Amino acid sequence: KQLGRNRVSLFAAARAALARPTPAEAHAADLGEAVEDDCFVPYFQPLVDLDTREVIGAEALCRWQHPRHGLLPPAAFISTAEGNGLIRDIDRAIIRKVCAQMAEWRERSRGSLPISLNVSAATMTEPGFVRFLSDCCQEFNVAPQELVVELTESMLLLADDPGRRSLKRIRELGVEVALDDFGTGFSTLSLLKDLPVTRLKIDRSFVVHIDNNRRDREIVSSIVSLGHALGADVVVEGVETESQAEAIAGIGDMIGQGYLFGKPMPAAELAACATWNCDYVATRA
Ligand code: C2E
Ligand code: MG
Ligand code: MG
Ligand code: MG
User: Fold this and answer.
1) Which terminal residue of the chain, N or C, has fewer Cβ atoms less than 10 Å from its own Cβ?
2) How far is the C-alpha of 236 from the C-alpha of 72, rounded, in Å?
């Protein structure tokens, strides 16, 4: 329950952790070594214009290239890394690699696709983080406007004042700020009251039954109105079927993300996606 209500996946994860470490969690024992050996890489999942299906951005999602166990997903290590502080190193390593990748794409004339980064509370509130972000932008000649920092709501709540301060500075730098898993946190609306958020990402749980559940459609529709009224764009996460995509298109102007459009993939695969639209500007009423 500490993780919030109505989070089926998190309940399952919490139960698993109580029982015994999964093989994947056991790998977290060598997390420190993995940081030293630079074993973390960003995968990229496309964000698409729902009308044209063009790629208009991507979310960087961390993977651990484990020497013996292969490619491990965040579920195998992020919560451990958040517990022991190594998440700061992992987040920074991913951010540098993403900026380097953006520079490479630009050099190869693919243009500059905006990339979203997931940042944990500990990373964001660490003194010097905003400076680090701005240094990365300078080093790789990335415009801060091409980056989106994704935060989870409950994390912001815990982060409190220091979190809010660094959030304001991130916005002053020009980096966009998205609220991830929107709708599942503790205090959604009061957070929106004075946080400089530029994007809402509607949690996958509202999308699963969107093609056959009117209540879910009404909720999504309300979030879209709310987001646009606050000058934010709205991303819908976890779109897996054409039927869901159709239902979403009927609701309003959203950006799509989900397995239907593309799973998280290595940088080279994203680069091979035929249609990038680097100049997409989402509706912000
Ligand atoms: P998130 O930021 O909400 O990312 C979306 C997650 O949903 C990703 O899982 C993605 O692979 C998955 N997903 C996307 N589309 C679909 C779909 O259509 N169906 C289903 N079932 N799943 C879909 P992933 O890559 O395992 O990442 C899990 C979480 O780990 C992320 O959730 C994010 O909170 C965290 N994370 C990932 N990378 C980083 C990182 O570099 N730093 C930090 N601090 N957290 C990270
Ligand atoms: Mg995210
Ligand atoms: Mg999410
Ligand atoms: Mg999530």
Assistant:
1) N
2) 25
- Determine the Cα–Cα distance for residues 60 and 115; give it in Å rounded to an integer: 7
**Residue 76 — pLDDT band, cuts 50, 70, 90?**
very high
74 lines ligand 1 (CB under 6 A): yes
Question: Quick one: which atom of ligand 1 is closest to the CA of 201?
Answer: 3
The structure's pTM equals 0.90
Protein residue with its CA nearest to atom 20 in ligand 1? 238
Q: How many CB atoms lie within 10 A of CB 13?
A: 16
Task: Work out which ligand 1 atom sits closest to the CA atom of 62.
Answer: 38
pLDDT digits (tens, 9 = 90+) for 18-58: 555 565 555 667 899 999 999 999 999 999 999 999 999 99
The rounded Å distance from CA 230 to ligand 4 centre is 22
Query: How many beta carbons lie within 10 A of that of residue 212, not counting itself?
Result: 11
* Count of C-beta atoms within a 10 Å radius of residue 15: 9
ipTM associated with this complex? 0.98
